[in-house]
Amino acid sequence: MVEVHLWSGLRSLTGGKQVVEVEAATTGELLRALVRVYPQLQAPIDAGVSVAIDGRIIASGLSEAIPEGAEIYLMQRLRGG
Amino acid sequence: MALDDRKSDFKFVGTRPDRPDGLDKVTGRAKFGADAYAPGMLHGAILRSPHAHARIISIDTSRAEAHKDVKAVVTRVDFSDKVEFKPGLEGEFWNVLENVMAGEKALYDGHAVAAIAATSALAARDALKLIEVEYEVLPHVTDVDKAMEPDAPVIREGAADYSVPEGMHPNVVRYHESGHGDVEAGFAEADLVIEDSFVTEATHQGYIEPHACLATLGNDGKGELWCTTQGHWIAQKTCAALLGIETSQLRVTASEIGGGFGGKTTVFIEPVALALSRKANRPVKIVMNRSEVFRATGPTASASMDVKIGMKKDGTITAAQGVFRLQGGAFPGAPGDMTAMCAFAPYNLTNVRQVGYDVMSNRPKQAAYRAPGAPMGAFAVESVLDELCNKLGLDPVDVRLKNAAHEGTKASYGPRYERIGLVETLEAAKAHPHYSAPLKPGQGRGISCGFWFNHGGETSVSLALSEDGSAQLMVGTPDIGGSRASMALMAAEVLGIPYENIRVTVADTATLGYNDVSHGSRVTYASGLATIKAARSAVEKLCERAAAKWGIPADAVKWENGHAVPSGPNAGDFDPMPLADITADMGSTGGPISGHFEATPEGAGVSFGTHIVDAEVDPETGKTSVTRYTVIQDAGKAIHPDYVEGQYQGGAAQGIGWALNEEYVYGDNGRLQNSIFLDYRIPVASDLPMIDTVIVEVPNPGHPFGVRGVGETGIVPPLAAIANAVSKAAGVRMRQLPMSPPRILAALKEDG
Predict the structure, then answer these.
(1) B255 Cα distance to chain centroid
(2) N or C: which terminal CB in chain B sees fewer CB atoms within 10 Å?
């Protein structure tokens, strides 16, 4: 299982949880698993999220491996000027 | 992205060769957006709403259409409203369509409502007067706080997304909340807690070149578009969606660009010119005037912010909290979330909470502006930190060093940092002669840190070798900050041929795969990484050809300083073979040698900067002068240091404008009052001191040469650093930008 830290604004979509656990070995699996367990997370994921794996921000790739015990944060996708 | 062979010893990278576009630019040979012409070309002009908020009852174009010089008139009905086309007209595409041509309502002063193509620019502008629009004027709101009040006019019902808590005004369209720890417990531990509120006005990116384009679209659905843009693939995709044509049938070429700073990351006139061209069956050129640029293209968001920070007597921050309300015009998109996520990012905080609001108002659709959202938040946070240092008698650099984020720190926005360079910029600030230089009476010194994420993004690069051993490199990211030079340096480093032997071209959308916009400080990072990978793939082929010529296995050849050389004891004894000897007959040894790379690189490194500013205030006139300015920023690795320094200086210069003079001024009628450069005051050379720069290099682990983006972080600290300097010089805390002379005088008067 992977522990996923959400930003606190998402707690209303996960029954108050800010850290959730899902089964995933890649970023793509992670996002799919999140929606499976917490369907309301579909909206923020569709709006654009990035996944930070041990501090490395994966902006959009679905095939990045998630190592065992990695620290995972879901972040709003970044925009630039 | 796995990086097997990080490089730290360079021959070309880090040098300062002449810029490849220098001659073009000083002789006027460079072709900008307005420099394109076509046989039979018409000129377009756009009719704009004089009202901040009005229902469009009717548009009568018959008199304009009857004019002999007018060849086409378009309104919203001439654009696609089909959702079945994929990607469909929903979300941001719909917002862009609504922005480039109003639908049921005009949403801000300057909103496009109709357009004309005529045989001359003058005829087109004159014929606009023949279009009759009947409006029902509606109540409007342009201030972010007022737009959130219960009785504020609703700009568009149903625009809010999933994130907005129930009970908020419909103008609040996005909400962000993040952080960690327990801020209340943290405030209870503090020896001093300061809570204060801050306001910044919208500023324009202020690029010298107005938007301009030349468009051709036939009834066969095939089109050509030439335009000034930071990203021609997004222009292609958006225009195709808005016109209801296939993306691949529209070829878009980016002109030389006279500044963008984030403001040219979307489209404004391009879909209008294409729609006019399709109707008139002739090429159509549109060039905005400055007033149109101010009224109808993206300024940045304006902000209203509350920040509360607790500190112990030794300077340790115990808790930090911020609420950031940004209005981004009559559409969703103000980067309140980015403001919130960046505001406290420089600090190692146990207890932090940040909230961001995206609020709509009757102003033009905000567009990105260097590190969108971050400068405002830094202004509020770093002002409160400065006040805490003043009250506790602490050195502002020492306090920032004590609390500075470093590798392993849990960032205020969530994850732990990889290797970052904030501490190095603060140490460089402390050691810099500027920091210890004496101040004259009446002067004040301010410092501030700043943070920006930086970005990767979709990237395609292609490199082709010529028979004479020179190379052409095709990139898809418009050169807004010297990227042709830095790409050539990185390719030279891998190929081992001189910088001058490489020509870099910004290719059109028909020539390369998709490229994300030149934004997010991504180009030197992502196009640079792609260039390195493309050059390495060409080098592999060069080694294979040399091996074939020598009759040895390909893996017995390695590449050194532009030559194939035998490697290992069994490789044989051959003289090094220069690149040009391999390319000379490549047609007969296996064919053309090229390299290419396509990916979305996932290793952009965040970056930090620290700025030191001296300012003096004339108490009689309220005029502020910035007397000394030093920018210190982590570049990861400076590929072409001149351009890096230029980015640092440019960030500071634009920050000085934002802090001291620039602002959108709205009348009670919701009309923009200062839509020309005479009334909207950007800094000119005589307003600026020499801006000193220090390049700190803490390599980004996610790039083969260690590059971090440098284009945006430089505009994050100036607002706060200048406000801290001015507040000291004036003896009164300045909480509202710009700190223009009337506002300084008012603050001095209020302070007695």
Answers:
(1) 18
(2) C
Listed residues B546, B571, B599: the one ending a domain:
B599
- Establish if B341 touches chain A: CB-CB under 8 angstroms: yes
Q: What is the pLDDT of residue B83?
A: 43
Assess whether B733 and B617 both reside in one domain.
yes
Question: Cα angle at B343 between B342 and B347, to 5 degrees?
Answer: 95
Binary contact (A78, B602; C-beta < 8 A)? no
Burial B512-539 (b: 16+ CB within 10 A, else e): bebbbbbbbbbbbbbbbbbbbbbbbbbb
Domain boundary among B573, B599, B625: B599
Distance between CA B520 and CA B11 in Å, rounded? 28
Strands B302-311 and B192-200: antiparallel
Q: What is the largest CA-CA distance in chain A?
A: 37
On whether residue B52 sits in a domain, the answer given is no
- CB proximity A75 to B under 8 Å: yes
Query: Is residue B618 located within the same domain as residue B483?
Result: no
User: Is the Cβ pair A73, B414 closer than 8 Å?
Assistant: yes
Residue B336 sits at the chain A interface (C-beta within 8 Å): no
Here the tokens at position B176 are 């962000």
Q: Which residues of A touch B702 (CB under 8 A)?
A: 56
Q: What's the pLDDT tens digit per position in B597-623?
A: 999 998 899 999 999 999 999 999 999
Q: Report whether B331 contacts B208 (CB < 8 A).
A: no
- Residue B171, C-beta contacts closer than 8 angstroms, at least 6 positions apart: B141, B147, B148, B152, B154, B155, B359, B360, B361
Choose among B59, B96, B66: nearest CA to B79: B96
**At B420, is the secondary structure helix, strand, or coil?**
coil
CA gyration radius, chain A: 12
> Tell me, what's the pLDDT at B714?
98
Asked if B204 is an interface residue toward chain A (Cβ–Cβ < 8 A), one would say: no
Classify residue B481: in a domain, yes or no. yes
Average pLDDT over residues B70-94: 76
Q: Count CA atoms closer than 13 A to B166's CA, side-chain side.
A: 1
Enumerate helices (H) and strands (E) in chain B, giving the number of each: 21, 26
User: B609 and B746 share a domain?
Assistant: yes
> Are both B614 and B726 inside the same structural domain?
yes
Domain CATH for B422: 3.30.365.10
Shortest Cα distance, chain B CAs vs residue A61, angstroms: 7
Residue B556: domain span: 22-30+456-599
How far apart, in Å, are the Cα atoms of B102 and each of B74, B79, B85, B95? 11, 11, 21, 10
Condensed to tens digits (0 to 9), the pLDDT of residues B723-734 reads 999 999 999 999
φ and ψ of B446, to 5 deg: -130, 150
Superfamily of domain A2-76 in CATH is Beta-grasp domain (3.10.20.30)
**Does A81 sit within 8 Å of B418, measured CB to CB?**
no
Query: B162 in contact with A at a CB cutoff of 8 Å?
Result: yes
Assembly ipTM? 0.94
